[in-house]
Amino acid sequence: MAVDRRNLLPIGQFSQASGLSVTALRHYDASGVLVPTLVDPVSGYRYYRRDQVRTAQSIRALRQLDIPVEEVRRLLGGGEEELVAALQAHLRAAERRLEVQRSTVHRLLSRLTEGAGMTHRVTVRQGTAERILVRGATVDNSGLDAFLCSAYQEMYEVAGRGPLTLPRPAFVRFHGVCDDENETLVEACLPFWEDGAQPTDLPEGMTVRELPETALACTEVEGAAAVFPQILGAYDAVADWITQHGFAFAGPVRMVFRRWTGTPDAPDNRLEIAWPIGEPVDD
């Protein structure tokens, strides 16, 4: 039976209307993302309905956002609400990446023009031996805040049952790089007085640990400088100082809550980046 082709566009015209190359259209046909309405059985020439132009334009836009082909196919097969939600999530992620890139550029420019020591003063203090409650998890930066919130809430509940005496600020130990691309073991730590009441009935996954006395190379950041990714400059400054002064890295770096309002970018927040150091050891 003859096909009425008046409502169809040949692939060349469809390519012009949609902004997708003929090569891309063939690829999307093979991958099932955009299948032509008619393929001539003799010539193999592809034809598309006119109302497929808008779909093709959407595909072009989604691919310009670096959304993978398989994800494009899934999104187009779902409802409009799912597509809107996916686009909003993609926008938030793009804005987050831009924020990280902007901070990284400013940090590098500062290092090149001023040097890390000009923006972050590093000192050494002696850290005392401590007994601490610890709750750990392997997370990246996107899951860090939620983990720390739940971990400290649980630990303060344990401390209140003691009741424990808390002689020093809570802190976090990072066993590796924790950013948007890397996950690592993160430990929420709560020091308590070892000569007073002791914790009992610890929840699963919470432990008591002894930390030895150690020297710490430290710098402090406040307000907006204490928020990721800006705070990474403080970690870099301490690491540079340790390297330049010939010390050894003697344990996971700590982020100490010197003053915390509960709001991440509050100007009154004050955090300390403290890295355990020791004398270099010859291999």
Automatic annotation (TrEMBL):
Residue ranges of coiled coil: 84-111
One Pfam family from the record: MerR_1
Keyword line: Coiled coil, DNA-binding
InterPro entries, per the entry: DNA-bd_dom_put_sf, MerR-type_HTH_dom, MerR_fam, Reg_factor_effector_dom_sf
Domain HTH merR-type: 8-78
Superkingdom of source: Bacteria
Molecular-function GO term, any one: DNA-binding transcription factor activity
Descriptive protein name: DNA-binding transcriptional MerR regulator
